Amino acid sequence: MSQKVSPSLTTQGWIQTPSEILDNEFANFMLNEYSRTHFYVGHVASFTYLVQNYGHDRFELSVRTSDTLRRLFECFFESVSVEVIPEQISEDDDSKFYLRIALTVIHEGLSYVLSKSTGTVDSRTRTIIDIQKGLKS
After folding, report:
1. Average pLDDT for consecutive 10-residue bins of the chain (137 residues)?
2. Bridge partners, residue 83, by sequence
3. Rounded (10°) CA dihedral 76, 34, 120, 74
4. Cα–Cα nearest to 30, from 132, 134, 137, 130
5. What is the pTM for the complete model shown?
6. CA 137 to the chain's CA centroid
């Protein structure tokens, strides 16, 4: 299998290690603006776009987030498992919820895990919490 790399505009340049690719591409997913391209319209993985379009329905948002992340990381890793679980924050208000995102990828027989929780209120992401990342033993 050829070496997959992730481009970075930082001093790191081309990112090559699996855990750093996982971090970099997830950060890009969280920050990307869907409309900031003329060449790749419809092919930008963007959490802000998903929240904008599906933030009113936490279950649809979780399905779309899972599908988008799976497609994104399949470009870099042999195997990708994504689990996105919506959890309502307030029983009185459907617009406040967490999405718990668990990514497990396999590269050269080793598993790498990234787990995050995002807090969304009124279709805006308010918090991102790092639950776990790194090499899974």
Report:
1. 76 87 89 71 81 89 95 94 87 77 92 81 57 51
2. 102
3. -10
4. 130
5. 0.81
6. 22
